[in-house]
Amino acid sequence: MILALDTVFDQCSIALLDKDSLLDEMTETGNRLQTQKILPMINTLLSKHDKKISDLTAIAFNRGPGAFSGIRINTAVAQALAFAHDLPCLPVSSLQALAQQAFIHEGLSHVYAVLDARMDEVYFGEFCEKDNIMQLINTEKLLSYGEKTDKNLPLVGNGATLLTANAQLCLENLQPTATTIGLLGLELLNNGKSVTAENALPVYLRHNAWKTLAEQGKK
Hints:
Blueprint: E1 2-6, E2 11-18, E3 21-29, H1 34-48, E4 58-64, H2 68-85, E5 89-93, H3 94-106, E6 110-118, E7 121-130, E8 133-144, E9 155-156, E10 170-171, H4 178-190
Parallel strand pairs: 1-4, 4-5, 6-9, 9-10
Antiparallel strand pairs: 1-2, 2-3, 6-7, 7-8
């Protein structure tokens, strides 16, 4: 049984999966009060199904890249619960979640996943389907606004139109929830790729994640 968490995609989303079946999901859109919402939501969902944290096998969480505050909340909650209950963690890429959402809901098997990273950059990854899971090609990276893609692939995510793309399709409004995080987490678990709580680390991609307003060129 997997508890999945996402606070990276401007939402507070949790899901409970039993093997590969979704038991339930709770999602509140918006990024306000995520720290106050997420633990009560977890308690509500578990109580609804007469479950406890001790009934879990692992905790899947969105490890980024994406909104820094969302990644910190997500990671901190996953680590705290895993430490307290001696559970493994399943760190899922936000870009892979976007690509998986495109595969599940749009039938796209080869895409660029693109998230707006602000400061004139996007988070970028190429993904291709294998055995119903979208797998990363090469590495996730930062690209500058307006950079040209080298393949004629669909772009998915809120940064899709920020690149100069040879794309047949741009899908800006795909929004993975914790269910997608959980399904990808299950794949990690099945392949022996869980990590301990202390190794459940965020991925920012940007080395200096804490640029000041002055460094961002803002007044």
